[in-house]
Design goal:
About 60% of the residues lie in helices and about 5% in strands. By secondary structure, it is mainly alpha-helical. Strand 3 and strand 4 form a beta hairpin. The radius of gyration is 18 Å and the shape is globular.
């Protein structure tokens, strides 16, 4: 870990250490230098920036190469709604996603979110991406079978598990989403880390070896939570997710 740039070290500090134990170590050792090159040398940045810039215009989100420093900031509520929308929009992007959604990379002006990404990016493997979207669709569209299918496709559960174990992990994921199906919710980074720890610890006990994609998802969520926690806003997560989903289908 000593070879990692300071920014990446700081981000990884907030990811539960048990998560590193359920990722195949040899694969992780190949991935971390790659992330370092992307962050320090902007490897692959320009190509993703160009594609993501056009894609995010659909959601009234603008990518910038410089931080905007708005002189007329929007309300914390508007900022929180847009920041969460950015996270969901990137999950659906066919091009990849910029991972660092922390406050110093986001700004609001005239109801538009400006996103100034650094070089930390990834593109999920196809199976993980498809499975992840099924998890979110299954939860927020309240389709239980789809939710379980997503967990299976992502490699987070196994057909060889007992139904009791499969339901136990599914319930851990549902608790990770908080009360977002039935009410607005606020975001607390420590609560997120505790929830993420329980999921990773359960998978460690079940000897699950997960994709590094899950680690990258953790980075995106940690930085998102750091932005949302700062606003102290209550957010209707279900409504924002369904809105982003409908924009893609229109």
């Amino acid at each position: 870990m000593r070879i990692l740039p300071g920014v990446l070290k700081e981000l990884l500090k907030h990811v539960p250490t048990v998560l590193f134990e359920v990722v195949e170590w040899k694969v992780l050792m190949l991935e971390l230098p790659k992330l370092s090159r992307r962050l320090m040398q902007k490897e692959g940045f320009e190509e993703l920036f160009t594609k993501q810039c056009e894609y995010l215009k659909t959601f009234d989100i603008e990518l910038t190469t410089k931080k905007t420093n708005s002189t007329n900031p929007s309300s914390p509520q508007d900022f929180a709604n847009k920041a969460l929308g950015l996270y969901f929009a990137q999950l659906f992007s066919p091009h990849g996603l910029f991972l660092d959604l922390s406050p110093n990379h986001l700004d609001m002006k005239d109801q538009k979110l400006f996103f100034h990404p650094n070089g930390l990016w990834t593109k999920f493997h196809k199976d993980f991406s498809q499975g992840l979207l099924k998890i979110y669709d299954g939860f927020f569209l309240e389709q239980e079978e789809l939710f379980h299918e997503g967990l299976l496709i992502c490699g987070l559960t196994s057909k060889n598990w007992s139904m009791e174990d499969r339901l136990a992990l599914a319930n851990l994921f549902k608790s990770h989403f908080g009360p977002s199906l039935t009410q607005e919710m606020t975001f607390d980074l420590e609560t997120f880390k505790s929830s993420f720890f329980k999921i990773a610890n359960f998978m460690l006990e079940k000897r699950v070896v997960i994709s590094t994609d899950f680690l990258y998802l953790g980075i995106a969520l940690v930085t998102l939570y750091s932005s949302l926690e700062k606003t102290k806003a209550s957010v209707n997560v279900k409504e924002i997710y369904r809105s982003m989903r409908s924009q893609l289908n229109s």
